[in-house]
Amino acid sequence: MIPAHASPGPLAVSPRAAPAHAAMAELLESRPFGSQYTNVYLSIFALFCFKLFVKISLNILTHFYVVKGNRKEAARIAFEFYDFGQGHRSWADRSPLHEAACQGRLLALKTLLSQGYSANAITIDLVTPLHEACLGDHVACARALIEAGANVNATTIDGVTPLFNACSAGSVTCTEVLLEHGAKPQPEICQPSPLHEASNKGRAACVEALIAWGADVDHDIPHLGTPLYIACLSQELQCTEKLLENGANVQKGRFLETPLHAASQKDSTEIIKVLLEFGANINARNLELKRPVETAPPSSLAESMLLLHEATPCSLSQLCRLNIRNYVGRSRLHFIPQLKLPTLLKRFLQYR
Fold first, then answer.
1. 132 lies in some domain
2. Which SUPFAM superfamilies match (predicted)?
3. 287 and 348 inside one domain
4. DSSP alpha helix (H) spans, the chain
5. The CATH number of the domain where 303 resides is what?
6. Range of the structural domain that residue 343 is part of
7. Could you give the angle at which helices 38-68 and 96-103 cross, rounded to 10 degrees?
């Protein structure tokens, strides 16, 4: 029993309020945990939508002023809302500079740069205007951005570089411009490979440019394999030829799976013929201990070609060519045209 002179503690509940308090506690316990925060989630979502609406409105307004020629007002909006000129980068999704680069509007892009927009402005996914220009094959915009200080090796949140985008789009001009200004032809560890992308999409000119600037033709990505394996899997004949001519290892694919296995599975007779000319081993076995002929579709042209090759000995000239190229080595194959040999013989050694 509580003494008359003692005051109730902070947690004490009056007898009249006890039933109401117990009912409220029971109600809260009976509701699901997530439903108690429904209003909070709705508030966060509403705030996000409001911020997105403001960003879109500002971008449209800035674009309107640029188009109408009111550069002063466009510069004011850019300065106040994007913090340009303060040494900060833009985190705004799809800034006007991104849009201009994406659409190839060179005049608008140069105007925005002159107004203080950063050439290295980024979205929340770290996409730069240079990424957009290269993906759209807008060479003039890419040059303007690079001249304004754009980082040619900038990476998105997924590790994608402008060079990767240029190769994906098949823009050999953008590829060469980037390489001339310091873009790395060889990706960092765990980054998407421009050479693999070009090989996958049949961008033979980009493949040639990357190799000329030092890309490793045998660069092996564990879950993808080599560029040659990717080219064979994608049935890209020209890329396959370019890689082999530049010294790609005809036996190196993905784990024990060789490029010949990939071409056989796809029933790609033209690629099989090229691989065999470069010395592909028809007896190589994959993880399932199968030879290429055993992975080809039954009664297919690929199966027939491989069976015929097994029964036909390789010519002496072919064996000599393979041995000479192996002796010269991959890093010195580009010196073959300088050898003091008849032109016909040099072309033969180069598979031309």
1. no
2. Ankyrin repeat, SOCS box-like
3. no
4. 18-30, 38-68, 71-82, 96-103, 106-114, 129-135, 139-147, 162-169, 172-180, 194-201, 204-212, 227-233, 237-245, 259-265, 269-277, 292-295, 301-311, 316-328, 343-349
5. 1.25.40.20
6. 323-352
7. 60
